[in-house]
Design brief:
Number of helices: 7
Strand content: 5-15%
Shape: flat
Largest sheet: 3 strands, parallel
Number of strands: 3
Strand order of the largest sheet: 2-1-3
Helix content: 40-55%
Radius of gyration: 20 Å
Distance between the termini: 23 Å
Length: about 150
Amino acid sequence: MTKNRAQLLFGLPPNFYKRRKLLLDIADGVLSKISPKIIFRRALPELDWSSFEKIAVFSIGKAAKEMAHVISSQLPRKPDIILLADRGHPLPTKEGLARTQKIISAARSLGERDLAIVLISGGGSSMFVSPISGISLKDKIRTTAMLLRCGAT
């Protein structure tokens, strides 16, 4: 699961190698248990799916793509709308802002006979970005960068 595992272990003295390998094994074990495939297994409640005119899936964060895929595969029919906010981490971006605006617009278009499934994972606060009036995206990026330099996560 750790993509750069070999690099993280390469060239370490045996004692450090052993410790780091153990930590990576633990981290990989935990991450494998919290994947969307595991967490969302049978996550949807029993519903009369035919009562919904449209089904929308809005997925936000670093795991947005996988979460949307897993939930969509569990639905009894293909969602009418699938939108992701999965760009711009750790700093917000113009693309993230554009994706956020698409999700907000799509959500506003839904009616009372429609269903919105909203999935949010880590990184969502920088990827789903819509600064209030008077605050620019540049301001948001600058503020986020300052907070990150101070240790905020």
